[in-house]
Amino acid sequence: MSVPLNSRFNVGKIPYEILEKIVYSRLGFQDKNIVVKPGVGIDASVIRLGDGFIALACDPITAATEKAGWLSVHINANDVACVGAKPKYFMPTILLPEGSRHVDLEEVMDDMDLAAKELEVSIVAGHTEVTPSVNQPVIAGGIVGVGLGSEPVLSSGCREGDIIVMTKYAGLEGTSVIAHEYYDKLREIVGEEILVRAMSLMDMVSIVREAVAAYRHGASAMHDPTEGGVITGLYELCVASNAEIEVNLDEIPLMEETIAICKAVKIDPYKLLGSGALLVSIRADRFQSLKYEFEKMGIKYSIIGRVLKNGKCSLRVYRRGREVKYEFPFPDAIYSVRV
Q1: Helix (H/G/I), strand (E/B), else coil: 299
Q2: Residue spans in the chain of domains classed CATH 3.30.1330.10
C-alpha cells in the first residue's frame, strides 16, 4: 500500500506497513549477537550473552496519570517476561508538564520504587525533566531482563495445532485507567462501588509469574496485549508467527467492572488496554501440566482459540457463531471514551 509522505498518522499505534518501511528498515548496525530484533508483535529484543540471553524492551505510559510510575515498571517487566526473562534493571525517562510540583515527581517515584521492589528490579539509570512538550506526565521506560534458560520463547513461535490460552481477563488496565481518570463523571452512571473495584484492577496488570510458569512448561509463544487490547495482541501473534488463528470472543472473560464501564462509555472492551492478560500459544499436551501450575498459583485461565496453520497471517474472530471483522491497526478504545 502506497502512503503519501505528507499524510498524517491517526492516534494510536503506527500502521504496521509503515513500521516495516520506515522504522524496521533503519535499525543501525546489526550485531551478530542479536537473536531477536524489533518487529510487529515482538515484546522484547533478545541478545545472546554467553550460554544464555538477555531481553530488552521499552514502553511508554501515555494514557494514565494515576499510578503511572508503578505502571511503567510493570508494563515493561511484562514484555521481557514474555520471552522467558526475569526483569532485572529498569531505566525510566520522566517528562513532566510545566507547572508540575515537587509532590508530583515524588508521587511518580514512590510508585516506581514500590513496583520495582515488588519485582526485585533495580532502577539503574534514567532522565527527568519538565517540558512544555507534554500536557501530562509521560514516562518512557526501558528494561533489561536476564534469561531463565538458554533459549528464549518467541512470539513468532505459534505452531499449527497449538491452543491459545489467555490468563485473567480482557481490558483490565484500561478499565482501571478509565475509572481513575473519569471517576467524578462516571460515579452517577455506574456507581461508586463499581468504580472503586475497577480502580483496584490495576493491581492485576503484572503477568510475570504466569509468563515464567508458561516458559518452564514449554510454551510455543507468548505475547502481552497492551495498546489495542486483546484483539490487537492476538493479531500481532498472527503477524509475528505468520499464522492463521481462530478465536472465540465468547471464551474471553470480562470482569463485571469492565462490562459496566465499557457499556457506560460505549467502547469495545476487547480493544481496550489489555495489560494483565497473557496470551500463550502451547501444545495441548504441554498445557496439561501448565494448567495445574496455574491452578496451584491461583491464576485464572481460559482456552480462547487455536492455531489453524502457518504460512498465512490471519485472525478469525467469532462471537455467538458469527464471524466478527476487525480492521488493523486501530486506536485503542480508551481514546474513544466520551462521558
Answers
A1: coil
A2: 31-147
- pLDDT tens-digit readout, 233-254: 999 999 999 999 999 999 999 9
Grid cell 462471537 is found at 319
The answer for residues whose C-beta is within 8 angstroms of residue 228's C-beta and 6 or more apart is 12, 13, 271, 274, 329, 330, 331, 332
The C-alpha cell that represents 260 in the structure block:
459496566
The three three-digit cell numbers of residue 150, written as one number = 538458554
Cell of 171: 481490558
Is domain 31-147 given the CATH code 3.30.559.30 in the classification?
Answer: no
Residues of the chain with pLDDT below 70 are 1-5
The answer to whether 172 touches 274, Cβ cutoff 8 Å, is yes
Contact 211, 222 (CB under 8 A): yes
The residue with cell 544464555 is 52
Q: Is 296 exposed, middle or buried (0-12, 13-18, 19+ CB in 10 A)?
A: exposed
| Span 298-331, pLDDT tens digits | 999 999 999 999 999 999 999 999 999 999 989 9
The CATH H-level superfamily of 163-336 is PurM-like C-terminal domain (3.90.650.10)
